Amino acid sequence: MDRISNLHFGSPGNSLEVRVLRKWTLQFRKDETWFIVIDEHLLARKTKQGSIQTSLLVTRCYRIKDYTCTEPDKYQKVLDHPVHINIGEASTIEEIPNRNTLPLTWFCFSPRSHFQMIADKILEHPDFVGVLINMKDRKKKRQGTIHAYDFNR
């Protein structure tokens, strides 16, 4: 059994036990369905077949084999992980009973300094809650500085 943390470009498609956290289709890539899966680490993966889209349900646990590990391009990098896994018709997907060892949620907290660093370079920053579109400090006489964040969901 492999772990998400061990995956790298060119890894063999060994068996992974994961939980599906999120599923979406990109606006301009209707033939691809994207999933976020988790074991103790987080990974994004994409599929190109509609049959697989209906095979994987959010919050369910699966054992997946015979996938490929690819490097994400700058338009596909939705998570801080060096690879994505692609699953297709040759992949094996088996639903497994709910595993208490597979988390139901995942969080990655970013300090304000991180947002300030990327806000200078990138106007929009993807996040699980939404897309950060604006960050500003507001001065109030009695309360001091208030940090304001605007998100599109």
Keywords:
OB fold (Dihydrolipoamide Acetyltransferase, E2P); 7-stranded mixed sheet; 10 strands; 2 helices; 3-stranded antiparallel sheet; 9% helix; 153 residues; mainly beta
Terminal CA distance reads 36 Å
Rg (C-alpha, Å): 18 Å
Sheet with most strands: strand arrangement: 5-6-3-2-1-4-7
User: How many structurally independent domains?
Assistant: 2
CATH superfamily of the largest domain: Nucleic acid-binding proteins
Mean pLDDT, as a whole number? 73
Number of helices: 2
Reported CATH architecture of the largest domain: Beta Barrel
Oligomer: single chain
Strand content: 35-45%
Query: Helix proportion of residues, in percent?
Result: under 10%
The number of distinct β-strands equals 10
* Estimated structural class: mainly beta
Largest sheet properties = 7 strands, mixed
The run of helices and strands is EEEHEEEEHEEE
- Which residues form runs of ≥5 with pLDDT under 50? none
| CATH fold-level assignment of the largest domain | OB fold (Dihydrolipoamide Acetyltransferase, E2P)
CATH hierarchy, class of the largest domain: Mainly Beta
What gross morphology would you assign?
elongated
Could you describe the 3D structure shown?
The mean pLDDT is 73. The protein is elongated. Strand 9 and strand 10 form a beta hairpin. The chain has 2 helices and 10 strands; from the N terminus they run βββαββββαβββ. The protein has 2 domains: 93 residues, OB fold (Dihydrolipoamide Acetyltransferase, E2P) (Beta Barrel); 41 residues, no CATH class. The two termini are 36 Å apart. It is mainly beta and 153 residues long. The longest helix has 8 residues. A 7-stranded mixed sheet has the order 5-6-3-2-1-4-7. A 3-stranded antiparallel sheet has the order 8-9-10.
